[in-house]
Write a structure and sequence with these properties.
This protein has 209 residues and is an all-alpha fold. The chain has nine helices and two strands, in the order ββααααααααα. It has one domain: Hypothetical protein af1432 (Orthogonal Bundle), CATH 1.10.3210.10. It holds the Pfam family YfbR-like. This is HD/PDEase domain-containing protein.
Length: 209
């Protein structure tokens, strides 16, 4: 994994060359993330519907779920939720049993990519613990909903296998075509970006007054 004699970078459609083992924030582009996540399937593609349920759509679901959290007043927290699986535009979405089989090296690569993504978009390299916990709760709820609504799990098996103990909201899920998921992801990113800009302007306005 750490043999630097072999190629460890990938060329993105943006033209960027991303070093997978030592990623730099300057080589990360939103367009590459949105494109990649819109084409990466959750559940190894084993879901109902004409299209795969993409990581981009999953990321939007998680972002919707965290809006109920008290932390959602901070738009950077919402951005962290939207980007919580952004590393998968490079690594793809390995199902949990396979991650365990691959071992700890995968988690190291994932962590470095995630940190680079955070730095690129103005988030802390390492998120506050409270943010991580809230996003993890929403991520688990999203996984449970996907399992029972799309992946063929019964509610009982979904709770038992995924260890879900919460009260899931009543939602419907319909997998989108990749181009729709990509556009929705970019739209949400832009909307959150506007919220961040507005929040950042408030202190300066107050000081001038």
């Amino acid at each position: 994994m750490n043999d630097r004699s072999s190629r460890a970078w990938q060329r993105m459609l943006s033209g960027r060359r991303l070093d997978l083992l030592d990623p730099s924030a300057v080589d990360i582009e939103l367009a590459d993330i949105a494109l990649g996540l819109s084409r990466v399937a959750r559940w190894n593609g084993q879901t109902t519907g004409e299209h795969a349920f993409s990581v981009a759509q999953h990321s939007l679901l998680v972002t919707d779920l965290v809006t109920e959290d008290p932390l959602a007043g901070n738009p950077r927290f919402l951005l962290a939720a939207l980007l919580h699986d952004a590393s998968e535009y490079v690594t793809s979405d390995l199902i949990t049993p396979f991650k365990a089989a691959v071992g700890p090296e995968y988690k190291k690569v994932e962590a470095r990519l995630t940190q680079a993504v955070h730095v690129r978009f103005g988030l802390p390299g390492v998120l506050p613990v409270s943010w991580k916990r809230a996003i993890k709760r929403a991520d688990k709820t999203a996984a449970y909903l996907e399992a029972i609504l799309l992946a063929g799990f019964s509610e009982r098996d979904g709770r038992r296998i995924l260890g879900y103990r919460g009260d899931a909201p009543a939602v419907t899920l319909e997998p989108w075509p990749p181009e729709v998921a990509k556009a929705a992801f970019l739209d949400r990113f832009a909307a959150i970006g506007q919220e961040i800009d507005a929040a950042d302007r408030k202190p300066r306005t107050a000081r001038r007054a």
